Structure formats: structure tokens, C-alpha cells
Amino acid sequence: MRVSYAPAYYAPLPEGHVFPMKKFTGLHRYLTGQQLIYPENVVAPSPVDVASLLTVHTREYVHGIMEGTLNRKQQRRLGLPWSRRLALRSRLAVQGTINAGLMALEDGIAGNLAGGTHHAMPGFGEGFCVFNDVAVAIKVLQQSMWAKRILVLDCDVHQGNGTAKVFENNQDVFTFSMHGEKNYPFKKPPSSLDIGLPDKTGDKVYLRTLGDALDDIFSQFDPDLVFYLGGIDPLEDDHFGRLSLSMKGLQNRDEVVIRTVVEKGIPLVLLLSGGYAPTVKETVLAHAEMYKKALAWAS
Q1: Which range of residues forms the domain containing residue 90?
Q2: What CATH number did the domain enclosing 110 receive?
Q3: Is there a contact between 2 and 110 (Cβ–Cβ < 8 Å)?
């Protein structure tokens, strides 16, 4: 299985910042060190071009990120302090998702060892999301005629508000978000299908709800390509999660999604999205579970 990754996915943050930036290099090191992903199958992206970013984002916002002209309010909303390395990593990660989409269309399954930055809106970033890589990748793949009907399966604990907003009323993109109802963001633009879950939902109800939702989605929408945002923040010990999934429950979630898509013969893109376990090591190991499940189905 091929994946997108570049060392510059890491950009330094102030000491004590809550965002686990080191998880990107840590996940790459773990997957290659365990020989789950072979080095020759790691494809390094170049920075995404401005024209691609402008399919989703405003020129003013793109310029603000690339040139560092965001004001304090904009940086506070983003949740990340601007730096040239942050701007570079954000452009690399977007192209990584575009590349993963193309690789999935060729291979059946591919991934980006980053991505899933679903909170970014056309004119601003928020919730640690600079650019909306999923939305840009979809726009680029559609404009290039690589795919037309695209499904976003977003299982991050936070609703994919940016993606929902970009594709509202777009009949060729189905956005599904299953998230914590009382969790961030507090204003949730409607996805094609939203399922808001109560705090402490737990494995049994979560998995039953997900299975029913997937049956419903595929009964009404036949995609050419699926993007899966496999955020690990529904875990019970996540700093922001509150849905109380066990590790076994998270593994079963990934199994259900990946098996459902692969058995239907639909190309699948894997994206990390959020995860804030107590340590970077725990965060990395939890993200790796999605790739372990995918590798079992990619052979």
C-alpha cells in the first residue's frame, strides 16, 4: 500500500502546545520500522499549487497563510501560531491527500500520513486546520475528471464543519459525519448525513449506529471514491473526545468502514484527522491501527 509522507509534515510548535505535531514523523517511523509500509511505497508530495488551493479557499486567506499576514484573531481561531514551516507543511499535506486520492484510484487503497483537516473553511482556518485537504483534493480530482461522485466518511469525534460547508447542496459529494453532539464545533453546518452522539456513547451503540449509517449511505449513494477520516479522538482517554470508545472499539470501527468500502470495490483514501491521546506514542499507536486494518484488506 502506498502512502503520502514528507519529513516536513512536522513543523515546530511552542513547548506545551496541545497539538501533537510529532505524531506525523512518529507514525511514519513506526509503520516503516515495523515493515508495515515499505520505504519504496512512501511517496513524498510537493507543496500544493495555489490554483488548487483556490478551488476551495479565498485568495486573501491563501495569501495570509503563505505570507504570514494573519492577524492575532485569525491565528487564535486557527489555534496554531504561524510560521513558514507551518505554511509549508500545510501545503505538503494537501498535496499528499490529492496524491493519495490518485494512488487509491490506481491501487484500491492508499493513505496520507496526515490530512483530514476538516474544520478549515474557505476564508479561514480553525481547530488546528489550516487548509481543508479533503475539500481541495475532491475539487481537484473532480475538475481533472479522475472521479465524479465522492463520499466523505468522517469518524473524527468533531463534526466536519468545513467540509460540510464547502459541499452544501453539491449532489456529487456526500458528506457523512458521526461525532460528539455536544463537542466542538458548536455551530455545525449540515452534512449530507450527520449523526451526533451523546457523551460516553461506548463501543456497542457506536458500532451499531455506524453500521446502520453505512447501510443507509450506500443504499442511496454510489461513489467513485471514498475518503475516510479515521480520527482516533473517540477513544475514552482522548483529551478532547468524550465518546468513551475502547481501543478494541476503535479497531472494530476501522474494520467496519474499510471492509464495507473494499468489499464494494470502491477506491479508499485513509486520512488521520484528529487524535489527542495522553502521549505522542499512544497517539501514534492508535493511528497505526487503521493502517493495520487496511493492509489486511489491501493484499
Answers
A1: 2-12+19-298
A2: 3.40.800.20
A3: yes
Strands of 42-43's sheet in order across: 42-43, 2-4, 109-112, 268-271, 225-229, 150-154, 173-180, 193-197
12: pLDDT strictly greater than 90: yes
Q: Write down the pLDDT at residue 52.
A: 98
Cα distance between residue 129 and residue 119, in whole Å: 6
Domain count, the chain: 1
Q: Are 296 and 270 in contact (CB under 8 A)?
A: no
Does the pLDDT value for residue 242 go beyond 90? no
Cα(187)–Cα(125) distance, integer angstroms: 15
pLDDT tens digit sequence for 113-154: 999 999 999 999 999 999 999 999 999 999 999 999 999 999
The answer to whether residue 299 scores a pLDDT higher than 70 is: no
For the segment 269-281, the average pLDDT, to the nearest whole number, is 95
CA dist 29 and 200 (Å) reads 33
Q: Indicate the average pLDDT of the chain.
A: 96
Q: Look up the pTM and report it.
A: 0.97
